[in-house]
Specification:
Blueprint: E1 3-12, E2 15-24, H1 30-39, E3 46-51, E4 56-62, E5 71-74, E6 79-81, H2 92-113, E7 117-122, E8 128-133
Length: 138
Amino acid sequence: MPMSQIIYGSREGGQIVSHVVSIQTEVRDPVAIRAACGRLQLPAPAFEEVQLFSSRTTGWAVRLPDWKYPVVADVNTGRLSYDNYEGRWGEQRQLDRFLQGYAVEKATIEARRKGHSVFEQPLEDGSIKLTVNVGGAV
């Protein structure tokens, strides 16, 4: 499973202290899948049975740019099924972008659900710094 890092802040002894947390990305939330697709201007995901090259699978199908077959998320297991033929039928970077978008959307949903504020900052290398402020203060 891909790894993502999240930075969150909390007040300790009157000071705001930041913490870096590494998380393993499991794709389990259809709302965050839909939000990631919207973020990346991809077609809306659909729950369907999909034919990959040599197998069929059912789950949330995400259609990535220039991929021959969709990526299919099984939200029960958190696993993705896809066939990009080692990059010949779809660039890995497109899948990486989707997973990054999913991780940001899922972390944002969960942080806001707990009453925390979230600040997102795109970085020069294409990564996203997500700062979650515990207690809602930015």
